[in-house]
Write a structure and sequence with these properties.
5-stranded mixed beta sheet; 39% helix; 10 helices; alpha/beta; elongated
């Protein structure tokens, strides 16, 4: 049950200051309008409003009756529940939907063809200052059906829109990576970020925290100080224009670097297996080889057909050496050939 209000507070009659003067003023205005429009006078059955009329003493402004029942409402209207009705929210998904799966598939397929191009650009520009490009083109120059797209390119100290020429032999993403730019979308990107700038971000990330927001804000401020302001179609500055694209590019460029590292590890392991095969062949033919104390001759190598299905996950043990996975985890403990 609801708690009854205090009668000592409820019986006090409150008279707002200036209320009677306000009513008198409104009545005078109403009288002037009635006289001006020549409207008929009010019906005599309606008593005039008595400004000085006081409420009777027996009326008590209380929310409850003597029998503790709530008073009858003045109007039998339905209560308004507009603000009481909670908004129906869609359930939060816990697994990727079809859109997320399609986006991941597009990125994965795109990264497969960019590993060699990233290696080419890294080896070409190491120890050199990249030249400022006016128009981006790929290696293919013989196709007659060429297409062009305008892409906003972010560099270390400026950004600009560049025209990218591509064809069926080399798509838009491959031409961008060939020229040192990583796209922010797997299909028809409108923005690309310099690979050197992404390398700088990853170096900053390894020594700090997730700095996408800080990096995007710092780039926007740095570009503005240098006089490069990104405007929208209405000519107004774009607020927080680089955060989303920088986040996508940093995430998937890191994925590309992981694939590049796996490619390098696979090449090293393949070369190591070839060295072991050559050593095994020389031992089987009776060639004198020098063995250090505590070492053993390598075991015979399998047939060359075993290298066709080469992968890093395969475990191949050699006499006198630890497993390759142990050597990668701790070269100091498992990389040598002296044990005991």
């Amino acid at each position: 049950p609801k708690k009854r209000r205090n009668k000592a507070k409820a019986e006090i009659v409150v008279r707002p200051l200036g209320r009677q003067a306000e009513i008198k003023q409104l009545q005078d205005v109403l009288a002037k309008l009635t006289k001006k429009l020549s409207l008929p006078p009010l019906s005599p059955s309606i008593p005039p409003l008595d400004i000085d009329m006081q409420p009777p003493d027996e009326i008590v402004f209380d929310d409850f009756r003597a029998d503790d029942t709530e008073p009858e409402p003045l109007f039998n209207a339905m209560p308004i529940t507009l603000f009481d009705t909670p908004e129906v929210q869609a359930p939060r998904r816990t697994i990727p939907n079809q859109t997320a799966n399609d986006l991941y598939a597009h990125w994965s397929n795109m990264l497969t063809g960019l590993v060699a191009l990233l290696l080419y650009y890294t080896s070409k520009t190491i120890g050199k200052i990249p030249e400022r490009a006016v128009r981006l083109q790929g290696r293919c120059q013989g196709c007659f059906t060429r297409k062009s797209n305008q892409v906003l390119c972010l560099f270390q100290d400026y950004f600009e829109k560049l025209t990218v020429d591509w064809c069926d032999c080399e798509d838009l993403l491959q031409v961008l990576v060939f020229n040192g730019l990583f796209p922010t979308a797997p299909q028809y990107p409108r923005m690309a970020i310099s690979i050197h700038l992404l390398d700088f971000y990853h170096a900053l990330f390894e020594r700090s925290c997730d700095a996408v927001n800080a990096m995007a804000g710092a780039l926007n401020m740095f570009y503005t100080q240098r006089g490069f302001v990104l405007l929208n179609s209405k000519g107004a500055p774009v607020q927080d224009a680089f955060r989303r694209g920088l986040g996508y590019a940093a995430q998937w460029y890191n994925n590309l670097q992981i694939r590049l590292g796996g490619h390098i590890d696979a090449s090293i392991l393949k070369a190591s297996i070839q060295v072991q095969d050559n050593a095994a062949k020389s031992t089987s033919t009776g060639t004198d080889t020098l063995h250090l104390p505590g070492t053993h001759a390598p075991a015979p190598a399998p047939s060359p057909s075993d290298h066709s299905s080469f992968s890093l996950t395969e475990s191949r043990l050699v006499a006198g050496q630890c497993a390759r996975i142990l050597q990668q985890r701790c070269p100091a403990c498992f990389g040598g050939d002296l044990f005991g």
